[in-house]
Design brief:
Layout lengths: L19 H31 L7 E6 L6 H8 L12 H9 L4 E9 L3 E8 L2 E5 L7 E4 L4 E3 L12 E3 L5 H16 L5 E6 L5 E5 L4 E5 L3 H22 L3 E5 L7 E4 L2 E2 L1 H13 L1
Parallel strand pairs: 1-3, 4-7, 7-8, 10-11
Antiparallel strand pairs: 2-3, 4-5, 5-6, 8-9, 9-10, 11-12, 12-13
Length: 276
């Protein structure tokens, strides 16, 4: 009868620790390899930055170019562009093009090989900005104040907005709501003012002045509607041009025609209008 041999125990011997000088050499080699790799990358970037092969060779301008010619836009923006096709910063390039007069917004992208494509949106002037020392400032269709040469504006009948900084969009909104109302009187607002205390005042193109007073947008529009709805018969009755109207009264308005003041008549006309 055979006996099974007794299994011999197995031992997993731990790898012998490397000597300290060997480990130091390995760490040093890794560090040196990393430094060499970084140096090669830096050298490649510097080479690419200086190599004429990757220079920006063309700028294509798209979008609104009615105020400036393409040549003018390039001449203004190109000196501010830095780097080549790969290294140029599109954010800085965008700012360079938006610094060109009449440019409101610019979108810049790369197009291989060596070209920048720029899409522009120009300001569309809808009013002059006449607050304090606001020389050569205009308001665009977005209610934003921008600087431009007023000699470049073809429309010499733009209305003027005058108010505290940051109120241009609010003022443009009210102007656009009031203009159709005053058009019923065969006139339009030449200047709309907003004081620091929130009081509104309009000067019409026929020389008349209208004190609109304080209130929200809807309140000011409503009081102007009442004024326009009742003043036409009075103008026809007296056959005198309007000089001044004060809409700050709660139940009516004061009216001054050239040579006659008709406050009492206006109050009666408004009371009659309310009954109807």
């Amino acid at each position: 009868m055979k006996r099974n041999p007794t299994p011999r125990p197995t031992y997993n011997a731990a790898p012998a620790a490397l000597p300290g000088d060997v480990r130091l050499m390995n760490i040093t080699a890794v560090v040196l390899f990393s430094l060499v790799a970084v140096a090669l990358v830096v050298a490649a970037v510097l080479w690419a930055a200086r190599h004429p092969l990757f220079a920006i060779r063309a700028i294509r301008v798209e979008g609104d170019v009615t105020r400036n010619s393409v040549a003018t836009i390039r001449a203004n923006a190109a000196p501010k562009l830095a780097g080549n096709f790969f290294t140029t910063q599109l954010t800085s390039d965008k700012s360079a093009f938006e610094a060109v007069p009449w440019v409101r917004k610019a979108e810049v992208r790369r197009e291989w090989p060596g070209k920048l494509v720029v899409r522009l949106e120009e300001h569309r002037a809808v009013a002059l900005w006449g607050f304090e020392d606001a020389d050569d400032k205009l308001v665009n269709s977005h209610g934003e104040v921008f600087e431009a040469n007023l000699g470049d504006v073809e429309d010499d009948k733009l209305p003027t907005l005058s108010g505290p900084p940051g109120t241009s969009a609010l003022m443009l909104q009210l102007l656009q709501s009031l203009q159709p109302l005053f058009a019923k009187l065969d006139t339009h607002i030449d200047t709309l003012r907003l004081t620091g205390r929130g009081s509104w005042h309009a000067e019409l193109d026929n020389g008349a002045e209208v004190a609109l007073g304080r209130g929200t947008h809807d309140e000011l529009v409503a009081s102007t509607q009442r004024f326009v709805g009742t003043v036409l018969p009075l103008l026809a009755q007296y056959q005198r041009p309007l000089e001044y109207a004060d809409l700050r009264h709660h139940d009516g308005y004061a009216l001054k025609l050239r040579g006659v003041t008709t406050g009492a008549v206006v109050a009666a006309a408004i009371a009659k209008e309310k009954k109807n």
